[in-house]
Amino acid sequence: MLIPLNPLLSTPLYLQIVEHVCLLVRGGQLNVGDRLPSTRALADQLSVHRSTVINAYDELRARGLIDSAQGSGSYISANLRELTRNPAPQRDQYPIDDQNIERLTSELWQANHDKSIISLALGTPPEDLFPMQAIERCRNLVIRRDGGHAYGYEMPQGYLPLRVEIARDLARHGILCDADEIIITSGVQEALTLTSRALASPNDVALVQQPHFFSDLANFRHLRLRGVGFGLNEHGPNRLDLEYALTLCREGGSGSYPRFIVVSPDYQNPIGVCWDAQNRLAFLHWAADHEIRVIEDATYRDVAYEPQPNPPLRALDAEVLYLGSYSKSLMPGLRIGYVLARGSLREQLISMKRITTTSSESLGQRTLAAFLAAGAYAEHLERVNAIYALRRNALHEALQRYLPAGCSWWLPNGGYYVWLNLPPTMDAMRIYTQALARGLAIFPSAPFYLLDNQPHTQALRLCFVRYPEDVLTYAVRMLGQIMNSLNNQRQFKNT
Length: 495
Ligand SMILES: Cc1ncc(COP(=O)(O)O)c(C=O)c1O
What we know:
By secondary structure, this protein is α/β, with parallel strands linked by helices. It has 3 domains: 13-84, Orthogonal Bundle (Arc Repressor Mutant, subunit A), CATH 1.10.10.10; 98-129 and 379-494, Aspartate Aminotransferase, domain 1; 132-377, Type I PLP-dependent aspartate aminotransferase-like (Major domain) (Aspartate Aminotransferase, domain 2), CATH 3.40.640. The chain has helices at 13-26, 39-46, 50-62, 80-84, 98-112, 132-146, 160-170, 187-199, 214-222, 239-251, 277-289, 313-316, 343-357, 362-373, 376-402, 428-437, 469-494; strands at 35-36, 66-69, 73-76, 118-119, 182-185, 205-210, 226-233, 236-237, 260-263, 293-297, 321-325, 337-340, 417-421, 440-441, 443-444, 459-463. Strands 5-12-11-10-9-6-7-8 form an 8-stranded mixed β-sheet, with helices on both faces. Helix 8 (187-199) crosses helix 9 (214-222). The site of pyridoxal-5'-phosphate (PLP) has 13 residues, from helix 8.
């Protein structure tokens, strides 16, 4: 164990040792039950007096971080995880700005990977439902067949047989395209970054749904794009809002005309709306009339709990830029998505991909191609979508049973989320903070809106696919208790 000590710091050496040990535990390099070196051995190694290490171990013991048994050394204590866990955030009332949203999302990522927390916050498919046997078989086949090529650089546009399989699969949705129009990306996030950068420059305007996938909004801020929002209803985009958004853009001067509009007609994240056929056509006419480029994010298209009769926008209009992903419908760790583009934009996207990341990972692309060719994708979708639908129902029942009056939501026919609208008296951040302190992560609504477009009433996004029904029920009961107790506190204050 090498502990860097700095005698020039004002922190005494023994406390530097204590802090370093805490960091090692937080970082997972030391775990419960791990043995620390003897005081003599550590003192020799660090070239400090033995009493410095003895003081450090005394301090760790006093804080309950290590146990020492006479003659058998010092061990990381079983309490340690609790004791060193980051204190629950106390930021109920922080301003909605870029930095705080960044902090919140990074906290939620941590919670998502912390096994002691039930996380309904991020959109994570359950790892125990991944089709590991089929994937393993395909990967082994690829390695046997392709040898070292499976680990070589792939062409920037992506592995051709994978693009052929994707083109074939897209016919299922009524999309007719050539493998040559497909560019493989590291998930839809990269696809959106590349298309946004190709279509717009800093200070340009993009039209975005409100609420909208938080990560896209952060990405737009990062690219210095100015978002102008429009709302959705249960059938599709709100037409009046679209017109109003355009008026706002026009009032901003000629440089403000939107460069593109991003939409997700299938089970939109976060509210789960699926546009009806009429709205799809009307929207395409509207975009064509106003000469606005459409980006269709189809990430959740395959996560459907009922047959989906409405075609994607791209099937109705070949000019639509279609973004697809295998993250939610199969496995996000593959990091495989794609964009369908034509003409000079296609050329531009391929060269941007080459310049920025060279190509997406080779073995994953080849494995996925074999998986699709074997027909295993359809089988997997049928299996997991049936399970997700049951989980959605369980969440719905628990919400009906345990939540206080005034909350509202509706059941999506696909996707991962229920968007829980809170009554005007409830504060999403406060609920979030209290829930996290009790080991439950949920996503408060602020990051799903443009910074300057925060609504008066707030909401929580709940992902229902990750856990079985009993865990969802347990989590919602806890959420209900938290909301009820916050309600009681508020009423008590008001009396
Ligand atoms: C609407 C939407 N688009 C894109 C993504 C990112 O997908 P990928 O993992 O393919 O980058 C997500 C993930 O949550 C999403 O919800």
